[in-house]
């Protein structure tokens, strides 16, 4: 059973990643678009001789790419399936729908790794920012943990779409607020106290904390664990909500275009 | 490698609906949609798409659900394949309730619909089939041979590595059928599978559909092509305005109008006013108009023993008339009579 589930997740991730990589729109969204944000961030942080703020901004901008790719496309993931006419086929498949949907959003977050790499290369070539990683093992763990937890947050957004057709706009709406309160570019200490609990509830906060901790020197493993824990919580909440959302969709007949 | 249907007439299973041989049963199925109209003053409306539909399909039977657009065919099929929850009534597949045992039912049914959609365009046919094989629980070691078998069956062998976006409509439709059969389901639902496919492609598809019952599958086919239903189906239910208006073998349905005759008149630009006059003639059962390029074909079904050709022509005063002929009624005439009367 476990093997079968793992295989289903793996094949789903692979197939959807393949489709996303063949899309010119996703290339633009994943590689070119984040470079504008990254450039703005580099220009803002380029002061003094200390290279650390620039690397801080570079990593923040890189993770922004992962979140940007997920938030804009996860909400629309089911809208795309509906337009393709495949949504009903996925729902009537015997596999649990959560196991079908989760790899879709994780594939979207994985596409964000493109933008992470593109941002780091852009920073190196145009702004001369060297990436020195203090703890390579932690960095190698922090990146997939961040991708998985952001993918899980995307999964929760996609579940909302099962119930509410207009939920695709939710992802776009949340893109900027989440990267702002997750501390991608601005340290959390600068925000009012009431923002903190919101930041703590967001996996990207711990993901970027883990990546920065691993690259700049710090204690990243606690952040990695919290990012994964929150990813697990999002996934569990998504699975619980999904059953209800699917039943409601079957009652309201909202799965198909016609 | 097909799933064990797990369905057999066990003592506890026997009731007046399910045994001994009914694989699909719809019992007084109803489905209502709520919709809204207007932008500023929104009003909620209830549309009754299916209104008390009942039928059953025996094991190995090819059953046709025939009706015009909007008659309730697709809504009925969507309730049977667990996509929609009925507003009331019951539906069972292989003896199991489609609402309570949705997952069990899904493992044992295949669903194929017509049209261009329902496939991943940027993937090859092989990748599409491999992905759905995984979703339908086909054993990994059986996936490759099963996909090869199906590609052979639907005539796509050799084209499976091409992206679907380059496929013709007929090829897509054949790929749909292969997808629906991946897990070798005992029951297959085909929702207008030949719609929009060219005549040669449609003929090939019909041959594939016919072969499904030869392989022991039970098939529910919805269509609005009369000749297709006539050629393929063991039994047909005609649905109109959400209700079944007739049920039987194609021969039985034809027999319902066999005692009459049909007058066909080629006309050019006939108006509704003239049609109403023809409909008003004593002895006229049904009137239909088919567009044929620049002209139309007026098809008038009449009571037996009456010669109404002159009376019909006299009601078409001022309309250009071409060839006039009379013939025996067909299944299409039976269908038109049933749907018109509904």
Describe this structure in words.
The complex is a heterodimer of chains A (258) and B (342). Chain A is built from 10 helices and no strands. With 258 residues, chain A is mainly α. Chain A has one domain. In chain A, helix 2 packs antiparallel against helix 3, helix 3 runs antiparallel to helix 7 and helix 6 packs parallel to helix 10. Chain A starts with a helix and ends in a 6-residue tail after the last helix. By secondary structure, chain B is α/β, with parallel strands linked by helices. Chain B folds into 2 domains: 244 residues, P-loop containing nucleotide triphosphate hydrolases (Rossmann fold); 85 residues, Alpha-Beta Plaits. Chain B is built from 11 helices and 14 strands. In chain B, the strands form 3 sheets. In chain B, strands 6-7-8-3-9-10 form a 6-stranded mixed sheet, with helices on both faces. In chain B, strands 2-1-4-5 form a 4-stranded antiparallel sheet. Chain B has a 4-stranded antiparallel sheet with strand order 12-13-11-14. In chain B, helix 8 crosses helix 11. Chain B starts with 21 loop residues before the first strand and ends with a helix. The interface between A and B is medium-sized, with 31 and 35 residues.
Salient structural properties:
heterodimer, A: 258 residues, mainly alpha, 10 helices, 0% strand, globular, B: 342 residues, alpha/beta, Rossmann fold, Alpha-Beta Plaits, 2 domains, six-stranded mixed sheet, four-stranded antiparallel sheet, 32% helix, disordered N terminus
Summarize the structure.
The complex is a heterodimer of chains A (258) and B (342). With 258 residues, chain A is an all-alpha fold.
Count of the domains of chain A: 1
Specify the helix fraction band of chain B.
25-40%
Low-pLDDT residue intervals, each spanning 5 or more residues of chain A: none
* Total strands of chain B: 14
Main sheet properties of chain A: none
- Average pLDDT, all residues of chain B: 85
Strand/helix succession of chain A? HHHHHHHHHH
Report the C-alpha radius of gyration of chain B, rounded: 23 Å
What fraction, in percent, of the residue positions of chain A are helical?
over 70%
Q: What is the CA–CA distance across the termini of chain B? A: 45 Å
Main sheet characteristics of chain B? 6 strands, mixed
Structural class of chain B: alpha/beta
